[in-house]
Amino acid sequence: MEPDGRLSAVVLGAGLLGVDLAAKVMRSNSLDLRLVVGRDEATPGLRQAARLGLRTAANGIRSLTDTDDVFDVVFDTTNALSHAEHAERLKPLGTMLVDLTPSRVGRMVVPVVNGSEALTCRDVNMVSCGGQASIPILHAITRHHRIDYIEVVTTAASPSVGRSTRLNIDEYVETTQDAIRALTGVKDVKAILNLSPARPPAMFRVAMSLLGEGLTPESVRPLVMEAARGVRDFAPGYGVTACEVNDGRAFTAVEVVASGDRVPRYAGNIDIINSAALHVAEQYATGRLSKVGAETS
Known about the structure:
Elements: E1 7-12, H1 16-26, E2 31-37, H2 44-51, E3 56-57, H3 62-65, E4 73-76, H4 80-90, E5 96-99, E6 107-108, H5 111-114, E7 123-125, H6 129-142, E8 147-157, H7 163-167, H8 169-184, E9 189-196, E10 204-212, H9 217-232, E11 238-246, E12 249-256, H10 268-296
Parallel strand pairs: 1-2, 1-4, 2-3, 4-5, 5-7, 6-7, 8-9
Antiparallel strand pairs: 8-10, 10-12, 11-12
Helix pairs in contact: 1-2, 1-10, 6-8, 6-9, 6-10
């Protein structure tokens, strides 16, 4: 814990995701960003972080394990295969690990659905950008209706998708499907990811189709809007663009406009998973700081 009462934090990975996340963490009142880590000193993201006045390192996970420094929270923005190794090597340090890769190693958490579980987990998986955008709405609907089938189609602009995500497309789809099943109880689920090469770049959009019983406009729309309000508490650019219900079918779509920290407005995929990850880490920090205060009072 830092002298000012904040928890120390690290961003592991200096790609599109990592640099935007670092900019967000810098504004946090409960986290002190101590380090941004990459694997190559020539990485553009590390140079951007240095220009922001941040300390950087280029030895990958060794920058955290081969040091006497102790970090309270580590955000992993690398890739699914690497995260498994990172989780194992950081376990002895007692660090809270917030995983932004689709690794399925830790507890899958969506803040407005099961965010409280992050308070007791040392490895929290943020599922995927499509999962963070869709699951709050899907969870809200399935709590009140029997749903037999869910299909989620995520569209992201090609320039907003970095190398790690492209390497993990299979893991992205599988992890998104697994999280939807786990957090809605619906077994028949299909997730699709489209990378759009359109110019100008397409806005980040997630379309959800559901088949079930008792679906009416009057029963579905309030649930969708209430779930969206919950997401906007930490991701203000999240908005519902469609909500149609007809003959046992419901279709709803959302778009996310990025806040513009270090990414363009169309990169809502980066914005929503980073915003969700920061929200979870801040809740963890608040809970831990409150516990320390109670123990010392």
